[in-house]
Structure formats: structure tokens, C-alpha cells
Design brief:
Helices cover about 40% and strands about 20% of the residues. The chain has about 600 residues and is an alpha/beta fold. The protein has 3 domains: about 220 residues, 3-Layer(aba) Sandwich (Rossmann fold); about 190 residues, Rossmann fold; about 140 residues, 2-Layer Sandwich (GMP Synthetase, Chain A, domain 3), CATH 3.30.300. The strands form 6 sheets. Strands 2-1-11-10-12-13-14-15-16 form a 9-stranded mixed beta sheet, sandwiched between helices. It has a 5-stranded parallel beta sheet with strand order 4-3-5-6-7, sandwiched between helices. Strands 17-18-20-21 form a 4-stranded antiparallel beta sheet. The longest helix is centred in the middle third of the chain and has 22 residues.
């Protein structure tokens, strides 16, 4: 069984039903049926072979989520090629590195802006023969550039290339918080085993609609928001952009949606901010509703049925408090799925109190990606669920999570030494994550092994749980702990500027200049109070003794975050080295 054979089954079985939906600029959502999708895939596959694409050639993808992305993926696979997806946010230099390392023959780009990136480094990539552009180009395309529609009109090989489950389907370059990205080789069998395992735990059918906005270049969305729905008869609707997700949710009314924790945290913060701006009576009703919802959630988590009185209160709370929240998601949502980073337990509990279940999972690019997941029949907040069928998980003596099974990658492209470093002779893949498996079989992640902070007294500190707790403050937007080989912890903090300015205005603190505001005694005391009150359950050596407030957020554009919004800690430490040293005057 291959990804190609599974697509053919979906096309035959679901034919006229909608497979994709997209929204042209200024228009409304338009459906593409499974039959139409299959025809487009075949047309593109023929076009690729006419351009000389042969088995095992690499076809790169530099695009936002859109129908052409899906068509290119499957068209390339049917031509026998290997897809090399890239984040649309990458710089020209980063694109050039991946094209050269992968030896890509063709690259498909979405817009003129993405075309400019490739044009800038084209001479550095000797293997690159053609650039295919999705959007229309004004005038005659330059030499070596061809329109997507023109490719689909070319007459090439009429039959699919032979494919086996052991063939490499894709090479995905890890975004990496350190060093150059490595190309992860995933086979058809890797993906098939993982999607079958996930589908056995979470039912997805032709009645489902998924809103896709996480980058398809990330393996989490590639599997969960692309292969799983399209092999289940569901419809994938593409968000216009990350900025229109809220609007698109209302338009599409998805039943399932994947996201990283940042979306849920943002939704939570906006809800609380709106409540704070409301009247005292509205605030009282909201907090009563959350209290009722929390009681219902607690009963469900204990396997108990809520009492009749509690159910009645829940019905009232739904109408008075949570109806607007559910309407904002489109009104049909069965559950959210969270991955890519740690989901704060308090966020999961808040949404469940509101009647919305967030199922958190865990995995890596190298594991296709899912290792473990919570699912509707078995979930526990604060964990990343149980290992999915067919996947082995073991905790090493040093606490590192190891995994073995058909989901583990074939290896790193052209990098046997790096492969040998992470996959041992017995087939165990070293995840680099520290964690435990509890008495009920649920996996709990502590932190990345390389992120552990070792204090000068020898104490090991996992920053993730502390950071996750502190970003629950309405006044803290981003945080990174430091303290390696120091006596205690300190933090670089990016405040929630809107919330902080609102607080300052209410408390008669001058807000004309942001940098000056951050240095005021009142703001310093506010943040210090937030830190102290939220870390009461942490050990003495886990307390944050000092902090610095930054007037600029960490961003991808500044190379301080990966495309999946993980902090590049080494970059940030180097960039803010002077500010960090100022927090440790005794070491000067």
C-alpha cells in the first residue's frame, strides 16, 4: 500500500464529494471534488514527466497552503518523484541551502515573491532545471520558469510510475533550533503506518471538514491536515492566511482543526481580555460559567456522570457564556488537535470547561510524526497521550524518550553519521526529549534534553514547565529562562504590550514610551508579582530571581523562532548576551 493507492481509493470511493475548498481573493469558498482533484493531479503528473522528471528526482515546494500544494504533492508522487517541502517564510539563503542539499530538479513556488527568492540563488543550484509558478505571471515567463497551468497542459507519460511502500515519499528539512537543517527521509510506509494508527484512534469521515492553516511543509499538518482527511473522504478547506483564521472558521465551520498551542493561548487571552472590559455583572456570569464547566470537566475526567443539577447549570452556562465561543469556531467543532509544542494544562482545562476538547499529541519529523496522542476515548490533560498502535516507547536511564517502529524515518538524506547518532543498532530512535510514562500509560514531556539548564550548584532545571506556567499571565506574552552555570534562574520576558498598556492606563502610569514604561517601578513590581504568585508550587531552585523586560517580541523574521514557533535559544542568548550579563552582576 502506498500514498498513491490510498488516493486512488478515495477518488473512486468519494468521487463527486468535496475534497478541497479554497477562497479566491475577494470571493467566497469554492469546492473541488475528489474527481476534479484526481484529474488535476494526473494532469500535473503528466506535465512533470514531460519536463523530464524521473523516478527519485526531487521536486521542491515553496508555497503557502492552497490546492496547488496538494496537487503538486500527489502529482510528484505519481511521477515517482520525491517532494521537498519548505516553509514559505524561509529566506533566499535558506531556500538555496535546501535546494542544493537535496539536489532538487524542479521547484514549485506560489507567488512572485517566492519566485524572487529562488531567482536570487538559482545560479548556486546546478541541479535546478525548472521553476513552476502557481500564480499568473505578467508577460512572458523568464527562461526556465513556467506557469503551473501550462505544466498541466503538457503531454507526458500517461501512466503512473511504479511505486512501493519502501520508496522515499518526501524529504522534510527540520527547521532546527540549532545548526543547519537536516533532510528527513520518510517513506510511503512511514506515512501509511502512522495515518492508519491515528485513524484507528480518531474517527475522521466524509462528514468532516478540516480548516488547514498550519504550514503543510510541517509534517504535523502534512499527516493530520492533508493525508488523514483526504484518505477518509473528508474535506480540507484552506485558510486564506494565519491572520484570517478566526474569520475562516466562521465561514467554513470546521468539525476538526489542528493547531499549535499558540492559537489556543491567543484565543484564551482574547476571551479573558474581553471579559475584563465587560461590566461587573458580565464578569460574574462568566466566572460562574467557567466554574460550572470546570466542575463538569472534573467529573468527566474522573469517569463520573455530572449530577442532574450540574447538567442543568451547564445548559444555562452554555447559553449565557459559551455559546459565542462555540459560534466563533463555526458551531460544528468536534475537537481541536494540538501539537508542535507543549500545550499548557490550564489552557486545555479552560477550553474543556467551555465544552471544547483539545487533544494533545506528540511526535517529531523523524517519526512521521505521531508517537503518542490523546484521543476522544482516552485522554488526560497535562500529557501527550498514549503511544499509538504499532509504536514502541521506552524511557532511557537518563530520562530520554526512545521510540521504535514503522514510523521511524529511513534516515537523514546524505548524512549517515547524523542518522547513526539518533538511531541505535536495535532500531531505537533517540527523540532528544525528556519525559515519563505514568501508571496509566500516558506519556508526559518534561523538556528537550538540550534545553535543560544546569545551575552552578548542579541542579538540573527543565525550563518548559516554568515557562508554560508564566505565559499564563495576561501580562507575559513570551519568556525564555536562562541560568546555565549560574547560581539561579533569570528570564528574558516579552510582555503582552496591549494588556500592559491597558493596565498602565488604569493605574495612572505614563504609557507614552514603551521602553520607559517597561522600566517603571510599577511595571517591574507587577511582573515580579506575577512570577512569584505563579511559581508557588515550584521548588526553590526553580524560582526566577531576576528578569529583563524586552520591548520587541521574539520572531521568525529576526531568526529567533523556528517556523513552528519554537525559540532558538542559542540565537536569543547570543543576541541578548549583554542584557543577560546585567542580570548577573555578581559574575562580572
Amino acid at each position: 500500500m502506498t500514498l498513491i493507492s490510498m488516493l486512488e481509493h478515495s477518488i473512486q470511493h468519494y468521487g463527486s464529494q468535496p475534497a478541497l475548498a479554497h477562497k479566491p481573493k475577494g470571493g467566497t469558498y469554492q469546492d473541488i471534488s475528489y474527481t476534479e482533484f484526481g484529474e488535476s493531479v494526473d494532469a500535473f503528473r503528466k506535465g512533470l514527466t514531460a519536463l523530464g522528471v524521473q523516478k527519485d528526482d526531487r521536486v521542491a515546494l515553496l508555497s503557502e497552503n492552497r490546492p496547488e500544494w496538494a496537487i503538486t504533492d500527489f502529482g510528484s508522487l505519481k511521477a515517482g518523484a520525491v517532494t521537498v517541502p519548505m516553509f514559505s517564510t524561509l529566506t533566499a539563503a535558506q531556500v538555496g541551502y535546501i535546494l542544493k542539499d537535496s539536489g532538487s530538479k524542479i521547484i514549485c513556488v506560489s507567488t512572485s515573491r517566492q519566485l524572487e527568492k529562488v531567482t536570487a540563488i538559482r545560479d548556486e543550484v546546478p541541479t535546478l532545471e525548472q521553476i513552476i509558478v502557481f500564480d499568473p505571471i505578467e508577460g512572458e515567463p523568464p527562461e526556465g520558469v513556467i506557469q503551473f497551468e501550462a505544466v498541466c497542459e503538457l503531454e507526458g507519460q500517461r501512466t503512473d510510475a511504479d511505486a512501493s511502500e519502501d520508496d522515499i515519499a518526501t524529504i522534510i528539512y527540520t527547521s532546527g533550533t540549532t545548526g543547519d537543517p537536516k533532510g528527513v527521509m520518510l517513506t510511503h510506509a512511514n506515512f501509511i503506518s502512522n495515518l492508519q494508527a491515528c485513524k484507528s484512534l480518531i474517527e475522521v469521515s466524509d462528514a468532516d471538514v478540516l480548516l488547514s492553516f498550519l504550514p503543510l511543509s510541517h509534517v504535523f499538518e502534512r499527516l493530520g491536515g492533508h493525508y488523514v482527511p483526504l484518505f477518509s473522504g473528508a474535506q480540507v478547506a484552506y485558510a486564506e492566511s494565519t491572520f484570517t483564521v478566526a474569520q475562516n472558521m466562521r465561514e467554513v465551520a470546521p468539525t476538526v482543526m489542528l493547531s499549535v498551542p499558540r492559537l489556543y493561548e491567543t484565543m484564551h487571552d482574547r476571551i479573558l481580555r474581553a471579559v475584563q472590559e465587560g461590566s461587573p455583572i458580565k464578569q460574574k456570569i462568566f466566572h460562574w460559567g467557567v466554574s460550572v464547566g470546570s466542575s463538569v470537566s472534573s467529573a468527566i475526567q474522573k469517569g463520573k456522570k455530572p449530577s442532574a443539577i450540574l447538567q442543568l447549570q451547564q445548559n444555562i452556562a452554555d447559553k449565557l457564556v459559551f455559546a459565542k465561543l462555540k459560534a466563533a469556531t463555526g458551531g460544528r467543532l468536534r475537537f481541536f488537535v494540538s501539537g508542535g509544542a507543549a500545550l499548557p494544562q490550564s489552557i486545555a482545562e479552560f477550553f474543556h470547561a467551555a465544552g471544547i476538547l483539545i487533544l494533545e499529541g506528540y511526535g517529531l519529523t523523524e517519526t512521521s510524526p505521531v508517537i503518542s496522542m490523546n484521543h476522544p476515548a482516552q485522554w488526560k490533560f497535562g500529557t501527550v497521550g498514549v503511544p499509538v498502535p504499532g509504536v514502541e516507547v521506552h524511557i532511557a536511564e537518563d530520562g530520554e524518550i526512545l521510540t521504535r517502529g514503522p514510523h521511524v524515518m529511513k534516515g537523514y538524506f546524505n548524512n549517515e553519521s547524523a542518522t547513526a547518532e539518533v538511531i541505535n543498532e536495535e532500531g531505537w530512535f533517540h527523540t532528544g526529549d525528556i519525559g515519563i510514562i505514568d501508571a496509566d500509560g500516558f506519556v508526559k514531556i518534561t523538556d528537550r534534553k538540550k534545553n535543560i539548564i544546569v545551575l552552578s550548584n548542579g541542579k538540573n532545571v527543565a525550563p518548559q514547565p516554568i515557562e508554560s506556567e508564566l505565559v499564563q499571565s495576561p501580562y507575559i506574552d513570551q519568556i525564555m529562562l536562562v541560568g546555565n552555570e549560574r547560581k539561579n534562574l533569570a528570564a528574558l520576558i516579552v510582555p503582552n504590550f496591549d494588556a500592559l498598556k491597558a493596565w498602565a492606563s488604569e493605574n495612572n502610569v505614563a504609557t507614552d514610551d514603551l521602553a520607559t514604561l517597561l522600566e517603571t517601578r510599577q511595571v517591574q513590581q507587577l511582573i515580579q508579582g506575577e512570577i512569584r504568585s505563579r511559581l508557588t508550587d515550584f521548588a526553590d531552585f526553580e524560582q526566577v530571581r531576576r528578569f529583563t523586560l524586552l520591548d520587541k517580541e521574539f520572531s521568525q523574521e529576526a531568526d529567533e523562532m523556528t517556523p513552528t514557533l519554537k525559540l532558538k535559544r542559542n540565537v536569543i542568548i547570543e543576541r541578548y548576551g549583554d542584557r543577560i550579563e546585567e542580570m548577573y552582576p555578581e559574575d562580572a
